[in-house]
Recover the amino acids of this structure.
């Protein structure tokens, strides 16, 4: 394990958007078994410190690779492309209209868990179509600009999903 | 070896010696200590054969303390100086303490954590907890025949940073080497999982005396992975007692009660609650100091009706935890019940209904946490036997964030992140030439800072003067395997390490702990310096032993020059061990630590490389 390795190298898997999640989980556990602070609880401080750094790094890499959106953004970063989430907020008008309509439907359903769950299912099927598009943009028909735009769109979908989750959580309180 | 001559008998750091390690369940109502003996986890009993130590501390005028059963018997006689359920005050300000109106204590609302005025002076909840831990430590040392190498103390999974820090401080104050703070439901899962070779998704429902936790775990091939946790750090069996108490006061139309009568009726309420677990009705009698007499009969149905809302309060968090884990009730293979309060039939019934299955009640709900902690402590202390290679992946229960404009909390580390975890956040200056800024760290899920728990206000100083917005201050939030937060900062454009002045919103400063430690030694007529010296000598001896073992295995990872540097520091440490000043030894240990950090990193990288190559590596 070398701190200069990228997340894919750390896990010993190819830099690709599609990831074998079973393999990812297996390697994650193998790595944590070696570096986790529980292995070094009685060790000298230097080893405990190093163990915490390594285990933190392995967790960070795992979280990034496990989430399709974070993984896509990370691949773009490795290619030297900045998706400019903060600065580039220009989105096609049609997409923004769609977002507003989702938002209205979430507001309208906010008291009814069934309605929210149904909206969430719809939202997820919608975003999975976009992920397929992203897959192509990152691989076969490589187009980093288009892929950046797609990740920005997916960020909106993730926010909507979070909103539904929060509403559902509030209803359960 | 010179080292052995200065070690006390029985504490020489021989490499393959069995190390004395314990798991401690520091509970709201009762506390326990357990260890692994001949491969089996056992609770250690006191001389009278009791495993459970009531978490009650009574302070006497002469400065002495009475702890446990005897103190519990005194609570109605001396309520002001007999502290029960102190766990509810750990890391808490006065405004966080529930039922303060029926509490007999004379609280002092000091910044960060309440303190209690007693005949023996002002006591912090940390000190009170340390008294309980000291009794358990003495019990363990007597039973195991020598000083402990280390201990795990369990905490509710839903404890925030302040409550965890307070618990660790109490351990330190009691003279324990705290190997880890372990979440109570996780400890229970270890005990249950290993015992039953369990695989699949399990829920641990832990309703203790003062806290409620729900954890969802995935158990597979020697991995205990916490997927989500939720709970209520101020809900437990005590609240059921309190509800019954209020009902009795109301029904019997009692006049305002003295602290003594309050305590008496609370104790009677608890007895009645426990009796109702297996009986249809309970009779409660008491003659109060006011001259009034109480004689009533409570049916199980009455009791269940008046406390149903408390049971209901546990179900929301349970559903939230499942949702956070991305799972459905149907995915849960078993529900492990932990904590004395889960004995109540209506609690079991509600849990059955929620999870649509009969919960697992074949373990002793009072002991399973301590047993799990003992099993983990045994491994962490270095008594790893073959087969003991399970991996525990736990999470942070509450999100960490920082205050931004308008009193809003911006999330930095989300809840249920696997620990250890770190996140860096960049901040900038808003004025030309600004050299300092303050950062407010909060914990909780609410949007407004005012609704979250304030953890600390950090002041960054020494930022190089630049025009507004030019400085890039990178602040790193690190949560360690105990779930404790630390913060560091660096100015990114110049690389200047900004000085951090920590202003904790809670907890004790290092100076306060040292002072408390000193006071307790003064009282015990033990020499604090001698104690510190002994500790550092043992620590230094271990350090030499461990470093030499590492050098034997992996010398090739060091250049001749690096090797010489490490050996030189080791030699200095070896010589210092016989000196009489613990600070000198401590600084020599720190120097060895610094000199070996690169080496430790390379060794770890080598073992990782071997593991990924699929070769079996000897345990470290």
């Amino acid at each position: 394990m070398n701190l200069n390795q990228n997340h894919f190298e750390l896990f010993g898997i190819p830099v690709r958007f599609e990831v074998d999640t079973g393999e990812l989980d297996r390697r994650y556990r193998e790595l944590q078994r070696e570096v986790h602070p529980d292995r070094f609880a009685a060790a000298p401080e230097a080893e405990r410190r190093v163990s915490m750094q390594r285990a933190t790094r392995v967790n960070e890499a795992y979280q990034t690779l496990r989430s399709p959106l974070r993984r896509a953004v990370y691949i773009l970063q490795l290619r030297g492309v900045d998706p400019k989430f903060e600065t580039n907020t220009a989105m096609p008008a049609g997409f923004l209209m769609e977002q507003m309509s989702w938002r209205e439907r979430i507001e309208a359903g906010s008291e009814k868990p069934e309605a929210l769950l149904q909206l969430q299912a719809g939202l997820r099927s919608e975003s999975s179509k976009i992920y397929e598009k992203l897959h192509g943009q990152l691989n076969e028909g490589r187009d980093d600009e288009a892929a950046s735009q797609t990740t920005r769109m997916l960020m909106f979908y993730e926010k909507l999903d979070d909103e539904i989750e929060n509403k559902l959580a509030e209803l359960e309180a | 070896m010179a080292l052995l001559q200065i070690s006390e008998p029985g504490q020489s750091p021989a490499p393959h010696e069995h190390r004395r390690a314990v798991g401690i369940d520091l509970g709201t109502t009762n506390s326990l200590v357990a260890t692994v003996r001949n491969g089996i986890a056992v609770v250690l009993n006191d001389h009278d054969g009791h495993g459970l130590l009531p978490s009650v501390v009574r302070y006497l005028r002469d400065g002495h303390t009475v702890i446990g059963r005897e103190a519990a018997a005194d609570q109605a006689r001396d309520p002001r100086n007999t502290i029960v359920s102190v766990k509810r005050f750990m890391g808490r300000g006065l405004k966080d303490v529930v039922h303060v109106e029926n509490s007999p204590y004379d609280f002092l609302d000091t910044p960060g954590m309440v303190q209690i005025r007693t005949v023996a002076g002002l006591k912090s909840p940390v000190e009170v907890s340390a008294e309980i831990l000291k009794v358990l430590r003495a019990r363990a040392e007597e039973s195991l025949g020598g000083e402990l190498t280390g201990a795990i103390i369990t905490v509710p999974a839903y404890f925030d940073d302040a409550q965890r820090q307070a618990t660790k401080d109490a351990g330190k104050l009691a003279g324990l080497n705290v190997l880890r703070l372990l979440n109570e439901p996780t400890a229970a899962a270890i005990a249950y999982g290993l015992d039953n070779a369990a695989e699949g998704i399990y829920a641990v429902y832990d309703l203790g005396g003062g806290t409620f936790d729900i954890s969802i775990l995935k158990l597979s091939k020697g991995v205990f992975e916490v997927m989500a946790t939720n709970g209520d750090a101020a809900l437990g069996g005590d609240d059921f007692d309190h509800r019954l108490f209020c009902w009795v006061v109301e029904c019997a139309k009692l006049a305002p009660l003295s602290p003594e009568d309050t305590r008496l009726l609370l104790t009677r309420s608890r007895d009645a609650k426990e009796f109702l677990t297996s009986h249809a009705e309970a009779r409660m009698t008491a003659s109060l100091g006011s001259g009034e007499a109480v004689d009533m009969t409570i049916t199980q149905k009455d009791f269940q009706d008046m406390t149903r809302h408390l049971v209901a309060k546990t179900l929301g968090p349970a559903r939230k935890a499942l949702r956070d884990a991305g799972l459905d009730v149907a995915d849960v293979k078993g529900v492990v019940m932990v904590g004395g309060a889960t004995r109540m039939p209506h609690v079991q019934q509600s849990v059955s209904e929620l999870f649509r299955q009969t919960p697992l009640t074949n373990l002793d709900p009072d002991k399973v946490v301590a047993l799990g902690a003992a099993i983990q402590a045994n491994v962490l202390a270095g008594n790893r036997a073959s087969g003991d290679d399970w991996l525990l992946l736990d999470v942070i229960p509450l999100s960490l964030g920082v205050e931004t404009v308008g009193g809003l909390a911006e999330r930095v580390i989300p809840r249920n992140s696997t620990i250890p975890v770190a996140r860096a956040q960049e901040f900038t200056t808003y004025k030309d030439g600004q050299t300092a800024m303050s950062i407010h760290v909060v914990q909780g899920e609410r949007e407004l800072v005012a609704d979250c728990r304030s953890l600390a206000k950090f002041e960054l100083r020494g930022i190089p003067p630049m025009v507004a917005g030019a400085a890039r201050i990178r602040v790193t939030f690190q949560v360690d395997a105990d779930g404790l937060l630390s913060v560091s900062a660096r100015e990114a454009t110049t690389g200047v390490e900004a000085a951090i002045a920590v202003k904790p919103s809670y907890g004790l400063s290092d100076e306060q702990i040292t002072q408390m430690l000193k006071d307790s030694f003064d009282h015990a007529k033990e020499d604090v310096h001698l104690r510190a010296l002994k500790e550092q000598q043992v620590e230094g001896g271990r350090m030499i032993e461990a470093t030499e073992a590492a050098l034997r295995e992996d010398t090739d990872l060091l250049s001749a020059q690096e090797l010489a540097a490490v050996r030189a520091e080791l030699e200095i440490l070896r010589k210092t061990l016989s000196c009489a000043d613990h600070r000198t030894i401590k600084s020599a240990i720190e120097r060895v630590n610094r000199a070996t950090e690169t080496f430790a990193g390379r060794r770890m990288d080598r073992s990782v490389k071997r593991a990924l190559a699929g070769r079996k590596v000897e345990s470290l």
